[in-house]
Specification:
With about 600 residues, the chain is α/β, with parallel strands linked by helices. An 8-stranded antiparallel sheet has the order 3-2-4-1-10-9-11-15, covered by helices on one side. A 7-stranded antiparallel sheet has the order 5-6-7-8-12-13-14. The protein starts with a strand and ends in an 18-residue tail after the last helix.
Amino acid sequence: MCGIIGYVGEEDSVPIIVEGLKKLEYRGYDSAGLAVFGKNGYQVVKKKGRLSALEAAIKENPIGSHMGIGHTRWATHGEPSDVNSHPHLGSQNKIAIVHNGIIENFKQLKERLESKGIKFTSQTDSEVIAQLAEYYYDGDLIDMVIKVAGRLEGSYALGIMCLDDPDTLIAVKKDNPLIVGSSGHGNFIASDVPAILGHTNKVYYLNDSEIAVLKRGGVEFFTMDKEPLEKTIETITWSLDSAEKGGYPHFMLKEIMEQPKVIRDTIQSAIGNGENAKVLDGIDISKFNKIVITACGSAYNAGAVSKYVFERLCRFPSIEVSLASEFRYMDAVIDGKTLVILISQSGETADTIAAMREAKAKDAVTLAIVNVIGSTIAKESDHTIYTAAGPEIAVATTKAFSTQLVLLYLLAIRFAARLNRLPPEDEKNLLAELVSLPDKVTDILGHVDYIQKYASTCIGCKNIFFIGRNIDYAIALEGSLKLKEISYIHSEAYAGGELKHGPISLVEKGTLVVTISNCKQLYSKIFSNAEQVISRGAKVLFVGNACDAEVSEDISLVSLPDIHELFSPSLSVVALQLFSYYVAANKGLDIDKPRNLAKSVTVE
């Protein structure tokens, strides 16, 4: 969740680190800092708040060096403050570290070190790493890292500097992402590619328990047994421009508008001779009697949508959708005849990684849907298919969610055909419907004026509810989540038939109820639900292609193009994304970086 950047090379590290931190803002943070080598030891600047505060402090007292480390912190242990910000130094000011993750045994380690007279200055779990490193350091940096890693319990990605070796930057990780970049003028560590893409597109993906030793002229890798490692450098194929706003006021709006292209690219990757198609050809669905879909946040909502699609098309004996944060503790009944589908944009979601490992420990076969090549889930899953979303910078997902959906649709179609539960003509028709999806999304994006205007009337709402039936209910979950993420308006999603079982007591004059309606056979039911909330003072916004209600003072309508009911969530969600975006924009909120949220949740 925190962001790490480090550099050693021929150029001044400070502007490189600050610019890298800006590229990592999307991960979420409440403070930032950096440490570089100076003439008299480390020069450290740390500030609570946005990066602008850190930049102002550096401008007031300029610093510079050929090597340094920087960090954006999202508080877990200790309140957001200058002192609790990273980097952290040991009490002898010899070792400096930045850390992403959580050290679960930090209290025990801290007590042991304090008993030896070592003084701590922060409330963080991370400081214990710097103090422990100094305690173990005897002149050999790699030995020190091995000893420290052997004592830490939990997760970490670390950047480490030592005053005794002013030309060496060390990196090591466990259960948190960290990459190493190589350029003509120096070498980098970072939590994610955008932080260094302005300098190089050549990266190494660091695996757990691998040590990277970076110097001005090169990079070496070692195991925890101090044995040299040979690693293959990867080339990033997307450009820095794709991680820039491109004239849009926010990344979120840019990413909403990119959806026709990324949906089309993702579909093409899974049909014909695309790379994803090759992976799917290797999965024999007839070997399984159960499918479990597990994920967190929006990815879980994609799974909830897909359950309806899998059940309708595949008629599989058992299909479950489980929150990854619960899956790891529920002692799930799975075995070698279970296919576990994992969904994660980053491929580094801590709970989803744990769910994957739990599934594999019980002999289940795992299939991952991720957006990041080289991520932990991508590497460890038995099978991996990739969304073609490209870099997604806004914390609230849009295009990554949409590409996850289309891969899930394609999985269901492929599996149903393999199980002989989908006649060839029906398969052909469904694929044709799916191929038409990007053009229909384009149509919605070409008519945003009404959504924008309607959203401007909702900024005073205190409660907004989303309802739907069948697959419309599943996508209502994502609509509600999107709104609360970026607008800070209380929002909940309910199945329409559940209103009378409690939620309707919350409806009062001025409440907005967003009603999703794409299931033609259920329109009379969902319209009845709308009438029930209108009679209690609510206003209703219908979103869908199955609605013939007359627009009135109480009823508004966002019409969507016709498409097969099973794929309608892909159209509904675009309208709901736009609605959420414009509500938040009208409130003047920080849409790309909502408070308290992080893009990639790499801690439990």
